[in-house]
Structure formats: structure tokens, C-alpha cells
Amino acid sequence: MITPPSALSALEMSDLLGQYMRYITNPNPGYATLRDEILHSSQYMRIQQIRFANRIEIREEACPESLLDLRVPRLILQPLIENAFEHGLKQRMEGGILYLHYRCEADALEIFVEDNGSATDETIARVQGMLADEHLMAGGETVALANITRRLRLIYGEDGILQVFRSALGGFCAKIRIGGIIQNDPSGVDRRR
User: Fold this and answer.
1) How far apart are CA 186 and CA 35, in angstroms?
2) Helix 5-24 and helix 34-52: axis angle, to 10°?
3) Helix/strand/coil for 103
4) Is-contact 160 152, C-beta < 8 A?
5) CA gyration radius for the chain?
6) Buried b vs exposed e over 163-181: b needs ≥16 C-beta within 10 Å?
7) Which distant-in-sequence residues (6+ apart) come within 8 Å of 42 by Cβ?
8) Angle at CA 59, nearest 5°, toward 53 and 64?
9) Is the dihedral of CA 156, 178, 86, 65 positive or negative?
């Protein structure tokens, strides 16, 4: 018997949602490998791809293999992707693009989440100002960005940064930069020299 496409999508969605929920409800809240963060984010992107059907194209580059076992704070990548869908791509009826890619630079990892959504210059400037001023990170629609910023600063100090700017695709770009990754300390806390 051949499974109809809608049943296949429902089965896949059910499986993806189960995996998604297991990851976000994991009782070990601290750290994950970058591999696990990427897998979780890929599952989330697939859920959204099913949800938005043919309206959004997902472009996902592979992370360098040498960095996949790097320990990072849990849930720093998926919230950026969620923001791209909810604030940048949700209203697009066609031609939406979400682009996830990585860059290694000296002893730093950079993770980019870009979209071609409708971010205005004012929105980008407001989020940049919020990220630069800890007192402005108290709430509102930027809670996820504020949480990621706080955790990066707490764990990595000046080596952990979240920045936002205009994407080359025309929408919003969020960039996580984790510096000082010369060694991968098993504690996951200090990777500086």
C-alpha cells in the first residue's frame, strides 16, 4: 500500500514534533554539543517547512566537522530560527528564504541565521540598541535574543556575542560569535587559552 503524501507529512510532522519536545524538555538544561543544537534546529526548520509548504526555501550549510562536538549552551540556535519565521517570513506568500550557515575565523565560530523577510531599518536599529544596553533587555518581543545574549555573556564573557544587522538577502541577520575555542574543555564553560 502506498502512503498518500498528506499522511506521510502527518507522520513526519508527528515524529519531528516528538523529537522537538524531547529536546526542549531535556532535564539537563546547561549544554549540548553543537551537533545536537544543529540537529534540533534542522528538525525545527523541517517542521516549519511542512507548515509553510512551498512558501519558504531553507538553505542550510554544513558546519565544519571539527566543531560539531563543541559544547555550547542549549537552545541558542533554534530561537533565532524561530524569530526568522515568526517576525520575518510568516507573512510571505512566496519566495521566502531562511539561510543557516557557519564561518570559522581564527579561534572563533560564527553562526548566521539570515532571512529575506520584511525587517525595517528601524526594527534592526531597535534590536541593536537593545542588545547593546542590558537595561533594555528586560522583555518585550526580544526575550529570546536577550536570553541568548545573557547566556553567551555569562559563559564566554567578551568572547560570546550576539549581533543583528541587515542580511545580504534583504531581511534580518542574527550572528552568534563564540571566540576562544582553542580547546574544548569538558565542563563546557571555558574554551579560552
Assistant:
1) 15
2) 140
3) strand
4) yes
5) 17
6) bbeebebebbbbbbbbbbb
7) 60
8) 145
9) negative
pLDDT digits (tens, 9 = 90+) for 159-182: 999 999 999 999 999 999 999 875
Nearest to 151, CA basis, from 33, 30, 67, 34: 30
How many Å apart are CA 24 and CA 106, to the nearest integer? 32
| Strands ordered across the beta sheet of 108-115 | 56-60, 96-105, 108-115, 172-178, 160-166
Cell 507573512, residue located: 91
pLDDT digits (tens, 9 = 90+) for 108-124: 999 999 999 989 999 99
In the numeric block, which cell numbers belong to residue 83? 524569530
